[in-house]
Design brief:
By secondary structure, the chain is mainly beta. About 5% of the residues lie in helices and about 40% in strands.
Length: about 375
Amino acid sequence: MFLLFRTLARCLVILLACVAATPLAAQQFREIEQGYPGILVEELVNGLGVPWGIAFISPHQLLVTERAGRILLIDINKSASVVLDGGPEVVAEGQGGMLDVAIGPNYESEGWIYFTYSKASRGEAATTLARAHLDQNRLVDWQDLLVTDSATDERQHFGSRIAFDDKGHVFFGVGDRGKRPMAQDLSNHIGSIIRLNLDGSVPSDNPFSNNPGKRDEIWSFGHRNPQGLAFDVQTSRLWEIEHGPRGGDEINLITRARNYGWPVVSHGKEYWGPIAVGEGTSKPGMEDPRKVYIPSIAPGSLVMYRGKAFPEWHGNLFAGALKLRHLNRIELSPSGQAINEERILGDLNERIRALVTSAEGWIYFSTDSGRILRILPE
């Protein structure tokens, strides 16, 4: 009887291990046919939900957030994934859900991983910044650092990407939550880029700190729906890309306390007709974008490329496109002006959602169809 029990127990352990480490694809990565010279595109993973955020936690392990709420740890060498326990309850409705993931600059010493997600708040949902530790296959010490004052009855425009500067700050974006005029109202967090210390406290040099009637955490405002955020350590510039309405997606260079205009100024038009949004495309006291997309590409992410694998791309911005289904490469002048662009991987016909670069300088990206692919030199 004891031997029978022990045998059954071992079988159960093996079964649970098989469930926890789900094979995702063949060990041999699948090369994707495409027409861009000099690069190789490989599929690493397929069959996921909508993989909204991806981040390297080690040279061969990716953390992946799915908008429906799961957080996965994927071993790209073994082509296996584990669904992590300990994540939060998310409001996975409309454009909300589990959003971005980013490895903190203090990870080696303190182990913090940062997340954004839509959290139930006052019977509605609000963009939230959180952090946690990873203990084997479980997230522990979960901390909601800021549940933003952005709850509305709409299920759109949550943002939200995460970026870190080189001075101990974390940034993340909040969209206008379907309430346009509130992006100009500094008494809430709607339509803003938030800046915090890594522990969630408010930096004393934030522009509206200790200013009555204005939120201490706001760094910039007048944003419609930030979908990409990238800090360039070499130039100390914070770049953002956001959805416009029908036309008028923007790449902005984010500067302290600046107003980026939405919805007073815009290059887009109303969805219900050929009517311009706002008072015009520019106005004194409001920042002009560094690049505008007409028609919209519907950006999904943004990275600054500083890798070694493609030296010709050094200092370029890359943005994934959801609507027009390509990877957009933007060349910048030394002063930070967008001077040229190139659209690649359109033949994949995929909504490109998240972007990250590896230590080798390879570009990894996710698609809304549930795939993770990478670009490396041919």
